[in-house]
Amino acid sequence: MEAITIKDIAKALNLSTSTVSRALRDSYEINVETKRLVLEYATKMDYRPNPIAQGLKENRSRAIAVIVPEIANNFFSEAITGIEDVANAMGYDVVIFQSHESYEKEVSNVRNVVARRVDGLLISISNQTKDVSHLSDLHERGFPLVFFDRVSDDIDTYKVVADNFSGAFKATDHLLSTGKKRIAHITSSAGLYITKERLSGYKAALEKHEIPFDANLVHYCVNFGYKEMEGIIESILSVDPMPDAIFTASDRLALACFEILLTRGIRCPEDLALIGFTNLKVAHLLSPALTTVTQPAFEIGQTAVELLIDLIEKKKRMSSTFMIKLPTELVVRASSGSKVPGFGGS
């Protein structure tokens, strides 16, 4: 059967299309009895509004764009699931773009977002992004924009993140509490918000335990490439005395550490304890199981899209509380050298 239209309802009830349209929108201009007739008939005939026609009338597409560095990254795939969960329930479609950690690709993605005339944008910026003028231009024109996870301090809009400082502090404090003294920290690009926050948490834990911060123990992995990680691990292993633990700013980096240390005969956690940040779904299946910090990726996606849709529909005015931080949790397993029942910790 073909979908019933407003014209069909109007013809069946001997009403004008404008009267039916207003009745379906619960307009005060239409009397109660007419509204009842229209709504009963629409329900009986399983009437569904045409989203394309609605969008044209409202000058809205009922679609939002999401730009992430990489969908294959477990954090972003979970965040996108959270975004779609809320957006679809509220009648919005989601268009997804990947920057692949490229500033140029991100700028191109933003151009495509504008060309597609979506109603708003959720973005987590790339590793290479330092200049955010392509996003500032959108924001200054009143285009609804919300950052999540990787955010910019240069644009005053909503930003939804995990509590990166607290997560890094708990991870480093845990290692120090188990007797580790020299903890290397492998992180992402120095300019990223998450990098700064996790480094600050790492430093704060060192300060708590009265251990001096050593900048030589901090390594930045910009491109997340295997060769780049090999060079970083070689640097860590060549230091005298060698670090007794590594805290990585992502599980992706932790997995590379696992692989490279294994090829060099370095035992984890006996020779080097290891902690990640994300809590991949396979983290507990590794050998040894990976101690890591859980980020609420799904909830970050949900919160970010709720804020964006509120901005689109003008239900929320921008407040002074731009940054929304969701809690992180340290999940202790065997790789950090702790004695965890069932995981063979040492």
Automatic annotation (TrEMBL):
Database matches in Pfam families: LacI, Peripla_BP_3
An annotated Gene Ontology molecular function: transcription cis-regulatory region binding
Keywords for this protein: DNA-binding, Transcription, Transcription regulation
Gene3D superfamilies xref list: 3.40.50.2300, lambda repressor-like DNA-binding domains
Domain HTH lacI-type: 4-58
PANTHER family tied to this protein: HTH-TYPE TRANSCRIPTIONAL REGULATOR GALS, LACI-RELATED TRANSCRIPTIONAL REPRESSOR
UniProt protein name: Transcriptional regulator, LacI family
